[in-house]
Design brief:
By secondary structure, the protein is an alpha/beta fold. 42% of the residues lie in helices and 15% in strands. It contains 14 helices and eight strands. An eight-stranded mixed beta sheet has the order 1-2-4-3-5-6-7-8, sandwiched between helices. Helix 1 packs across helix 2 and helix 2 packs across helix 3. The longest helix has 29 residues. The radius of gyration is 21 Å and the shape is globular. The chain starts with a helix and ends with a helix.
Length: 407
């Protein structure tokens, strides 16, 4: 019995080392880490660990033990939650939706700013625990009440469950502002990546909601703001830079919208979009709207081939204003609150922020824009990782806090 246990243990160790070696070699040969990021070794370490966890998760998924995303979140959630004596953290449920409430312990004579935070992760990764450090610091540094929303995620819950959960939790919070000591005139919606999409959509949905306070501002951190064009300059330039590679974003996109992965090459070529679509929306999505300085690094215009009618029909959800808020009509976008937009140079989604910024400014909506020349998608999540923390993450936090305090 002992012998069999030793054999099993040795086999497991060999398998683990084999997978680790394969992941490291694959990462070295397929992922590109620009020197301008400033700390390439840190990013290499983060990427290797992430890819190793994702690979083991896919193995467990094949064995039908759990999904790959569940395994990655499980490993990340093993990290002990940081606490701060100056912040009171409360786990609540708004209906069936789990939320975390962060409140400064210090007494305050006047109501505070309220921030509703929607986490990123492509709807398949991310959790309340993973974003604890960010929300804790945001609460403490800005002296604000922060509500972090734990929406249901893909692959178990697909579109539009995430947005529905965020809507329910946000409305519940807005109806309870007095209970949490929040100023009705200073409620901010904030999110990173797909959480930024939720923040934008909630600003649209609640702009004229009877009985609810008007949203004061939206904070979008490398937000996902369109789901149709995958040939923009940032997609061409940053398709193999961690953490958000082309393969990763397609997996998230197709999983969340329940679109067959068989359309991958068609989607990448852009032949899932009709000439009529581009004729109608190129004024907002066209690459000519992106400043020339962002096209210098390996971009070439690509003329899409004939439209694939089947792919066009199956991707109808992606063309909705909910998934692609950049194409929202002027009369709606012009009513949105002022925005603080953070973009990163080495991010696949960089151009989403640039296009959205241009649309808002063209409609007279005040925009504060910060571009991280050394940033990449997911850099904000390195906040609190000690020696592995990227300076860029702290700069993003400080810029957001400065914006909030100026409201």
């Amino acid at each position: 019995m002992v012998f069999l246990a030793l054999v099993f243990l040795a086999t497991a160790c060999v398998c683990w080392l084999g997978v680790a070696l394969w992941v490291i070699c694959r990462q070295l040969f397929t992922e590109y880490i620009p020197k301008d990021i400033g700390h390439p070794v840190k990013l290499r370490i983060f990427s290797c660990v992430f890819q190793l966890a994702l690979t083991w998760g896919r193995i467990l998924e094949k064995l039908r033990i759990c999904s790959a995303s569940q395994f990655v979140c499980f490993l990340h959630d093993l990290r002990p939650l940081k606490k701060d004596a100056r912040v009171m953290v409360t786990d609540l449920h708004f209906g069936t939706i789990p939320v975390k409430l962060y409140q400064p312990r210090a007494a305050c004579d006047t109501p505070r700013t309220g921030i509703v935070f929607y986490h990123g992760g492509g709807t398949i990764l991310g959790s309340l625990k993973i974003y604890n450090e960010i929300c804790l610091r945001l609460c403490k540094e800005s002296d604000s009440v922060v509500l972090s929303v734990g929406y249901r995620m893909s692959p178990k819950y697909r579109f539009p469950v995430m947005l529905n959960d965020c809507t329910v939790a946000t409305i519940h919070f807005l109806k309870s502002l007095n209970m949490y000591g929040v100023d009705r005139a200073r409620v901010v919606l904030c999110g990173d990546s797909v959480g930024g999409l939720a923040a934008t959509e909630l600003c649209k949905l609640l702009r004229n909601h009877p009985g609810l306070p008007r949203i004061r501002a939206q904070i979008l951190i490398y937000a996902s703001l369109q789901a149709v064009d995958f040939q923009s300059p940032s997609f061409q330039q940053n398709h193999n830079i961690p953490f958000l590679t082309w393969d990763m974003i397609f997996d998230c996109w197709s999983c969340h919208l329940a679109i067959s992965s068989g359309w991958k090459s068609t989607i990448k070529k852009g032949t899932h979009l009709s000439p009529e679509f581009w004729k109608k929306y190129s004024k907002w999505l066209g690459h000519e709207n992106i400043p020339e300085r962002f096209k210098k690094r390996g971009y070439r215009p690509i003329v899409p081939g004939p439209v694939n009618e089947d792919a066009y029909l199956e991707t109808a959800t992606a063309r909705s204003e909910t998934c692609t808020p950049i194409i929202t009509p002027d009369d709606i976008l012009s009513q949105l609150p002022e925005a603080c937009i953070v973009s990163c140079e080495y991010d696949l989604l960089r151009d989403h922020s640039l296009l959205y910024k241009k649309r808002l400014e063209g409609l007279g909506v005040p925009v504060t824009w910060h571009h991280m020349e050394d940033g990449f998608h997911g850099v904000f999540n390195t906040l609190g990782f000690g020696c592995l923390e990227f300076p860029c993450s702290l700069r993003i936090l400080n810029l957001i806090v400065h914006f909030i305090k100026g409201l």
